[in-house]
Specification:
The protein is 26% helix and 27% strand. It contains 7 helices and 9 strands, in the order ααββαβαβαββαββαβ.
Length: 228
C-alpha cells in the first residue's frame, strides 16, 4: 500500500510514511471489509460514512506539516484511522465526531491500540473545540459548503488547515495557512491615534488559501456546514 499508493504518488515526508506503515488499517474497517482494507479507495464503515483512501490520508497529513510538539484538531473522526496517523506525529490530538456510535467505537479502538494522546469527543465538528484551541493544525475529513469561521478562529498563528470545500460536482481540497495578524512594517506605518483614542489598533487575522486537488468526501454536517 505505502509503496504503490503513497510513495509512487509523490508523498515524500518520511514521518508520514512511517506512520502509514505502522498503523494497522485493517483494524479500522468492519470485518466484512477487511480483505479490502489496504486497497486504493475509501471503504464504508457504517452510518453512511467511510474510511478515506490511503493516499488521501497521507496527502492531507503531509500538507499539515505536523511537528512533534503540535496540538491538532480533526473534524470527522469516523473510523479513527486518520486520528491514529495524527497520533503518531503530534503531541496531542483532539478529534470530534457527530455520530455517537462511531465516536465510541473509535475511542475504544484507539485506546486499545495505545493512543493515549488522542481524545475523541462527540459533537458538532463545524464548531470545533474552542476550549482546547488554538490548534497548530486542523484537518477536516468531510466536504464543507464553505470554510467554517469557527475553525478559522481556532487555528493558531502559523497554523495550517486542510479542508475539502464544495466546488461544482466534487470538492476542492484546500490548504489554509494563518499568517501573522499584522507585519512589523504595517505596525510602523500605522497612523498616530487621534485625540481621545487609545492607539490600540484592531488586529485582524489573515489567511492564505491554496487549492491542492479535486476530491470527493461525505458532506460535513453541522451548524456551519450542511444541515443534516
Amino acid at each position: 500500500m505505502v509503496e504503490e499508493q503513497i510513495r509512487a504518488r509523490g508523498v515524500a515526508d518520511e514521518k508520514v510514511i512511517a506512520a502509514m506503515e505502522k498503523v494497522p488499517r485493517h483494524r479500522f474497517v468492519p470485518l466484512s471489509q477487511q480483505a479490502a482494507a489496504y486497497t486504493d479507495g475509501p471503504l464504508p464503515i457504517g452510518q453512511g460514512q467511510t474510511i478515506s483512501q490511503p493516499y488521501m490520508v497521507a496527502r492531507m497529513t503531509e500538507l499539515l506539516a505536523i511537528r512533534p510538539t503540535d496540538r491538532v484538531l480533526e473534524v470527522g473522526t469516523g473510523s479513527g484511522y486518520q486520528a491514529a496517523i495524527l497520533g503518531e506525529l503530534a503531541a496531542e490530538v483532539w478529534t470530534i465526531e457527530r455520530l455517537g456510535e462511531l465516536a465510541d467505537r473509535a475511542a475504544l479502538l484507539l485506546k486499545d491500540l495505545g493512543y493515549t494522546n488522542v481524545h475523541v469527543v462527540t459533537g458538532d465538528g463545524t464548531l470545533g473545540l474552542p476550549e482546547h484551541a488554538p490548534y497548530d493544525a486542523i484537518i477536516v475529513t468531510a466536504g464543507a459548503p464553505s470554510v467554517p469561521s469557527a475553525l478559522l478562529e481556532q487555528l493558531a498563528v502559523g497554523g495550517r488547515m486542510v479542508i475539502p470545500v464544495h466546488a461544482g460536482f466534487a470538492e476542492d481540497l484546500r490548504l489554509i495557512e494563518r499568517l501573522p495578524d499584522r507585519s512589523a512594517g504595517e505596525e510602523q506605518e500605522e497612523a498616530a491615534p487621534a485625540e481621545g483614542e487609545t492607539g490600540r489598533a484592531s488586529r485582524r487575522p489573515r489567511y492564505r488559501e491554496t487549492s491542492i486537488l479535486s476530491c470527493a468526501f461525505v458532506p460535513l454536517i453541522g451548524e456551519q456546514g450542511y444541515r443534516g
